[in-house]
Amino acid sequence: MPEYLLPDVGEGLTEAEIVTWKVKVGDVVQVNDIVVEIETAKSLVELPSPYAGTVTALLVQEGETVPVGTPIIAIGEASEAPATPAAPPADEPLGEIDLSNPAASGGGEGESLVGRMKAERGATRRARRKPIQEAVGEHAARADVHDVFNQNATQQHEKVEQIASAVVTDSERQGAAVGAPEPPSTAVPATTPPNGHGNGAVRALAKPPVRKLAKDLGVDLTTITPTGPHGTVTREDVQAAAGSAPGGEAAIGIAPVRPVATGERERREPVKGVRKMMAGAMVQSAFTAPHVTEWITVDATATMEFVERLRRRREFAEVKVSPLLVLARACMLAMRNTPEINSYWDEQAQEVVYKSYVNLGIAAATPRGLVVPNIKEAQDLSLLELAKELQQLVAVARDGKTQPAEMSGGTFTITNVGVFGVDAGTPIINPGESAILAFGAVRKQPWVVDDEIVVRQVTTLALSFDHRHIDGEKGSRFLADVAGIIEDPASALLF
To answer: Per the confidence metrics, is the pTM higher than 0.90?
Structure first.
């Protein structure tokens, strides 16, 4: 039967995590049916089946990371049925269940362990039936032990109450005035309870987890009145005994109960997939390209008014229009005056690569980490086309469906930190690029207009750029050109 090997779905990716299986053993799949969702170092990807037939085994579990080329699923012919392993001989113990067998794991379509024919189930071992006298004897012995245990538990409870009363009385004597007469001690000496045969103490009936809990809480199981079936001590019995003891103690003479943590104080999460790739890229960029960041505060009132006018136009009725659209278009235009912003420093060749196209990256936060898909050839798009591409890009990124090809080849990036209410920041340049622009929140603030203080819509732009080939003059010119269009969108006609 053919095995589907994990392919390289990106550019030189070496491993991927199996996130969700879309099929199960016994399912019949056709060519190009989606069988699994994986997470690479760049994004979530759905893999189609290259074969048609019946799924006979899932070779990798969900959550496991495997290298490219690893067999992940076995698909047989459509007429094949998953093989059922023969039952072990009657004299051998049953081994582990084969999870690749639908009959063993409960998987497969139309199969159920309940109501199956005996011939289909194969040979099974029948439990040995004990003689009636032996069974009755065991039952009687258990009954005797339970009766003795219950009687002993009652005696222990009474004894603890007597000891507690004696200790309280003794404490009152110590706190009394000097010279006060002391009453005789009423403490009851401890005795070893019989077990019904006169040769030792009875062992309380409790499961191992309950015994461990009692040990951790400092509770003596023999002092507890059991409420479980057949006279067994339950977890609730232990917790009640620990909580009802005076002064936070389970019983007299037992160490105080330590508080039990109600939740995790620490949690570890492996760094993999998108987060792992992002971390490596940021370290590489931060310690390779010398970053310089410049800020400018802008009166964006005219841009906000322009956005409102666009929203009322028929062409933009089905498209989300935001200030980010105007900023993206402003960057495209400002690059015409400063092409260095859209260039790249080739360290190996010691050359600056100027690009006549703009693949505009938009940083998007997703549950699996930060991704930066880009809009290809953004410089050739109209304002309406750019709005549609932005809307599609954000929607796909939030669903975690961004493909590796959509994140490769970026030339310039915008990170919109304003959606989180942040004013500005010092963004790190994406590897392979030379600049990144942070767009802060647009807020109503006092602003000076014609020597008068008025309320205006104000925002902050922060540009980080590679200072190896973009000097302060070029970075400042680009940032000033973008800010000028935000202040007056009509100035875009000058470019």
So the answer is: no
For residue 26, count other CB atoms closer than 10 A to its CB.
Answer: 19
Architecture of domain 1-82: Beta Barrel (2.40)
275-494 domain in CATH 3.90.190.20?
Answer: no
Cα–Cα distance for residue pair 23/1, rounded to 1 Å: 17
Query: In which region does residue 231 sit, left (phi positive, over 0), alpha (psi from -120 to 50) or beta (all else)?
Result: left
Axis crossing angle, helix 208-217 with helix 235-244, rounded to the nearest 10? 10
Domain ranges of the chain: 1-82, 147-172+187-257, 275-494
Residue 221: the pLDDT is: 85
Cα dihedral 327, 331, 337, 342, rounded to 10, equals 160
Q: Catalytic residues, which ones?
A: 467
Question: Average pLDDT, stretch 95-101?
Answer: 39
d(CA 197, CA 493): 105
Tokens of 371: 């991704």
Percent helix, strand, coil in the chain, to 5, is: 35, 20, 45
